[in-house]
Every structure is written in structure tokens, then in C-alpha cells.
Amino acid sequence: MRISSGSLVGVKSCPGSCSQGQGKSLMIQPDYDFETLPDPLRPGLQLVFVGINPSVYSVQRGHYFARSTSRFWPAFSRSKLSQPVRMALGREMLGFEDDVRLLDFDFGFTDVVKTPSSNAASLKPSDYALWSPRLLERLATYDASMVCFQGVTGYRAFARYALDSPKEPTPLGLQQRLLGNARIFLAPNPSPANAHFRLEDQARFYDELSDLLTTEQSRIP
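Given the sequence above, the corresponding C-alpha cells read:
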């Protein structure tokens, strides 16, 4: 398995499968025969963030949303969603080096397509057709409570190639469809190339997601 040499240090990696109870910072990841970001995931997470695909820059840094121009970490830091993390770490701003730490707070990361590229626009339909069913299998394995896709492009491709869903208008926010027991939430793409949304807008979607997770938890007996 080839991953970036500096990636996600401190995470326990189990190449085949791991049983629960080995510690919260547990990651089970498939084998990739090319350099990409690993999937910091474990069974029963509260939330999994799903990007379109890793940028070459993020793979080189070994962390998710590593570009300084990405709105993900600034917006996440401003949102209610990150409040437990910020309180525990004793700081107001979180950054890409914190991605692995989020496992301890029931947040994980993965991508629709695991093949890195300089930008998501270079992906072909065949990339989505290949990787979307693999993501579906990955999400079913880990059985998170909520799956948050970062951007309409990745979610629509996933719905088409993994769920056989026809192309249709896709509003941001909570989706009606379920992935097993998981709810689906669609947030704006945090890339600076997405000029339709500002940092404040991105943070508001994460606030909405936080409220939804709180509501879902309150329903658990």
C-alpha cells in the first residue's frame, strides 16, 4: 500500500480488518497500488466527510484539504460542528494536520475517487464509474450515522454510478435518500474555485449539519 510518507501519523492501520475496542483512533483502509490519501475511518462513526478526490498537493502533504486556499478547515473551525474538537484541543482554529485527530471525535474522511489529480475538473466519467461503487462498499462497511459529500459534482456522480440514480436537480443540505442507515448531507464544494459560496456560507452549512447530528443523537434511546 502506497501512501504519502508524512500522512496521518499516529493512526493505527489494519490492512485487512480490525475489531472494535482497539482504541478510538482506529483506521481500517484498503490497499491502494498508487500514492494517495488513506481513509481515516472506523466502524460506527458519527460523520464521514467525502471529498471529490485528493489533490496532488494534499497527497504530498499527507492530509485532507491541505491547500491553504481551501475553505474546509476555516469554515469547519468557525462552525458549531467543530466545537467539541476545538474545546478539547484548546484552540479556535483547526488545520489539515488535525484530520487524523478527528477520529477521536467520531469524524472520518474519504473520497469519491481515490486517484489524485491537480484539480477535480480533470476527472473523467470513467473515474467516477470505477470508484463510486467502491465508495458505496466502503461506506456500507463502516456504517456511519451521517455522510457529508463536499460538493454537488462528486455526489451526483456517486449517485449516478453507485446508486443508479438519474441526473436530477440536487439541492444542498439534507437529502431524502439513505445509504443503508446513514443520512446524506450535501455541503458546497470548499474549493476556492467554487465562487458561488463564501466562507461564511460554508460554515453555515456545517452549522446545519451539527444541528442535524444533535437531533439524530437525541432520537437514540
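The domain at 12-218 is CATH 3.40.470.10 (Uracil-DNA Glycosylase, subunit E). Try to locate this feature in the C-alpha cell string yourself.
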